[in-house]
Amino acid sequence: MKMSTLFTRTDKTAKEYDTINATLLTKAGFVNQLMAGVYTILPLGLRVLRKIEDVIREEMDAIGGQEIKMPALHPSENWKQTGAWDGVDVLFKIKSRTEKDYALGQSEEEVVTPLLKEYVNSYKDMPVAVYQIQNKYRDELRAKSGILRGREFGMKDMYSFHETPEDFLKFYEEVKGAYKKIFERLGLTAKVTEASGGSFSKKISYEFMVLTDAGEDDILYCDKCDFCINQEIAGDLAECKKCGAKLQKAKAAEVGNVFDLAQKYPKDFEFSFTDASGEEKYPFMGCYGIGTTRAMGVIVEKFHDENGIIWPENVAPFQVHLISLGEDEEVKNESESLYKDLMEKGVEVLWDDRDTSAGEKFTDADLIGNPIRLVISKRSLESGGYEVKQRNETESKIMQQQELFDKLIRS
RNA sequence: CGGAGCGUAGUUCAGUUGGCUAGAACGCGCGGUUUGGGACCGCGAGGUCAUGGGUUCAAGUCCCGUCGCUCCGACCA
To answer: pLDDT tens, A48-57?
Structure first.
């Protein structure tokens, strides 16, 4: 993409927020705030978000998840059926002009359970897992921390139904494994943390926590093994339950969560199936969430320096930030042809073709944070190659075209 | 929802004990000079000072209400 055509621009006068993700994502033009806790995702931000979503899709598909898209506008009856209409205070409730009540989805058990009830009648129809990536709405008393806690936000939510608790548990573990892979691919180290099951599940749930001071949760973790527990359920616990080592305390942000919902929702919606012996039973259900927009915010919290964002390769808006300097014809022609070559080879390039100063181009490149910066200038042409610098390194080096292409196209 | 702070140009902000013909920087437009770390010069456009009331000869400035944003707390199926 040519930067001269990008309708957004970096804004050096943008307000400095207390949270890094809010400041940098706004300054660099990835998001734009509409109101507290509600953001427009701009072109650069959408490229990142889509990459996050695609990683999640691949891993959900790999464990048999089937993608669907459910509505966000729900009839109030479904929420009354489960008790959540009055029991969940973050539920957005709206009234139509004919005085009919609706809810905006803050999670979708109330839709997915009656949906699957229509298709699952036999033990032969299970296990089944469906997921979606969709905006969720929560009436938070206080939105905060940029895109880490909003009133409208992106989330992947998956729901699974099983004949037996054993089968549920097997899948539950598969999802946990998939989640670990997802966060690794996103560049995040997520700790699997024991936490409360919320108001509709008495069992513990597992939260996927990334250590960051921008997070809202306090967790206790063991640095000798993988034990980790949310302080909300830890009580006075000081030593690791698994190995006895002293627990460390840290702030963390929840990027994912898996719940054992048992038979609550199937029972609420009278969703039963026939087992092999002809008996009517309720399925066992799980739900599994990942905050997609929040993950984007957490990545920024983890990967930045004083000059801007440093996107991990897998989620960067573009692989290459190409900068051409000066009005020299040869520079222009060389830039144009490299830009086209890279695009043809499937390399994502953001080309700063603007007629602006070198300093501004460098500063913007650092702020936006694409992994590889390529400079074409009189100086680079004289060197006989391309000037290449990684965003997370300080030194640039000269590469010949073949070496550059090998580097960019290898994967 | 409780507490605190803030709301002035497209953006970020300044605006003194009330005296305003409301400023700066960035951004934007025109012209020129520049071109390896947010370049420079000149000219220009751009504001019902969030909103409603009140006090006063006079309100961006003081008082009250409302709305909004930020932060702390509570809350966070």
So the answer is: 999 999 999 9
Across all strands, nucleotide nearest A323 (CA–C1'):
B36
Gap from A93 CA to B47 C1', Å: 39
Contacts of A278 (CB under 8 A, 6+ apart): none
Looking at the structure, tell me whether residues A28 and A51 fall in a common domain: yes
pLDDT in tens, A351-381: 999 999 999 999 999 999 999 999 999 999 9
pTM (2 decimals)? 0.97
State which residue has its Cα closest to the C1' atom of B12. Answer: A13
CATH number at residue A51: 3.30.930.10
**Cα angle: A262, vertex A236, A221; to 5 degrees:** 70
Residue A287 CB lies within 7 Å of the nucleic strand B = yes
A34 touches strand B (CB under 7 A): no
Given a contact cutoff of 8 angstroms between Cβ atoms, the answer to whether A197 and A260 are in contact is: yes
The conformation of residue A84, written as its DSSP 8-state character, comes to H
- Where do we find the tokens 């390039």? A349
**Structural domain span for residue A285:** 3-305
Give the C-alpha separation, A199 to A197, whole Å: 7
Closest nucleotide (C1' vs CA) to A140 is B76
Model ipTM over 0.90 = yes
Asked if residue A195 is part of any domain, the answer here is yes
How many domains does chain A contain in total? 2
